[in-house]
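Example record

The entry below shows one chain as it appears in the dataset: sequence first, then structure tokens.
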Amino acid sequence: MFRYFLIIIITIPLLPLLYIQGKLIQRKLKRLPEAEGNTGTSGDRFKRNLSILILGESTMAGVGIRQHQNGFPGTLAQELSGKLTINIYWKVYAKRGFTAKQITKEILPEIVETHFDLIIIGLGGNDTFALRSPKKWRMHINNLLVALRRKFGNSPIAFLNMPPIRDFPAFSFPLKITLGNLIELLSRTLNDLASSKPKVYFNQEVIQIKKWKEKFTEADLFSDGVHPSEISYQLWAKDFSAFLLSNDEIFSTLRK
């Protein structure tokens, strides 16, 4: 908590500047819609089936692309289907601007399904923008996990990497530093919580934007300076697929 308060203390004198910069960024950013097609399948020839629930904020809502099938969900399903020789059904429940608390209170009650074999969650950006403290973030994530267990039982839950705020081209240097430091704290908190829970996993690796830039330009990787492009969603999904398959516990669960 000391580091969080240090960040807040440093941030307070910068608040007027950060507020103005935030407003300017909002004006510059395109108001991109969420992706269409929140359900899909991959594979239709295998004997086994797997269902995946995808929850989260704007990235999981597919802001920046037209169709989920060409973004994170479709690419992840394709990767897992081919490598696990399994038919995969996926469904997205996500909303631009939502925090962990909002997902628990507003989205989970809307989910009509009662079973998924794997639950994937992409959060962190909006809680960081709200200057969420690690203590409250931990509480909100824990409440989400409790609600998910109550609704879906003991299905594996995997959290995606946190957004790479330090690499957002639309953000000013002060925003990258202050919010970048905070999201690092939230990432550590999430990793600590996930490590203490059975069948809960978190990919704490930083998204490798610099590595992706070896093949693509910055304009190729961001749809509006903040949200991923179609290329980035696909790269992210492939990386996360590798994370899932490299974890022995997850792999054995998915192979059942």
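Notes for this example: The chain has a mean pLDDT of 90. The radius of gyration is 18 Å.
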